[in-house]
């Protein structure tokens, strides 16, 4: 029995020794074709987005994933109501933020023009 374990270990080591050059070549080609690229998230300049709006958006996404694979009518109605309320909250937050910018500015026409450009 002990010799069987030794021979299986030897066979495994031989297969590893055989595969190592292949894996080295494969990884070298792979890394040359697909180099590592670091991606940074784009920072948002939307100051009207609050943590609650972000949380609500992730909740809406989770609800969407639930309703996509589910035939529950009540759940779909809840998702539709939630979406409408969230869009109203986002619209109101944008309006309040833009009004605040206009009120604080010295040149209201220029600020209004900049808001429209966005």
What are its keywords?
118 residues, mainly alpha, 4 helices, 0% strand
Measured as a percent range, the helix fraction is over 70%
The total number of structural domains is: 2
- Please mark out the parts with pLDDT under 50 across 5 or more consecutive residues, or reply none: none
| Whole-angstrom Rg | 29 Å
Explain what the structure shows.
The chain is mostly helical. The protein folds into two domains: 39 residues; 67 residues, no CATH class. 78% of the residues lie in helices and 0% in strands. The chain has four helices and no strands. Helix 3 packs antiparallel against helix 4. It is elongated and about 80 Å long. The N and C termini lie far apart (77 Å). The relative contact order is 0.06. The model has no long low-confidence stretch (mean pLDDT 85).
SSE map:
Elements: H1 2-33, H2 51-68, H3 73-104, H4 108-117
Helix pairs in contact: 2-3, 3-4
Summary of the model, kept short:
By secondary structure, the chain is mostly helical. It has 4 helices and no strands. Helix 2 packs antiparallel against helix 3 (73-104) and helix 3 (73-104) packs antiparallel against helix 4 (108-117).
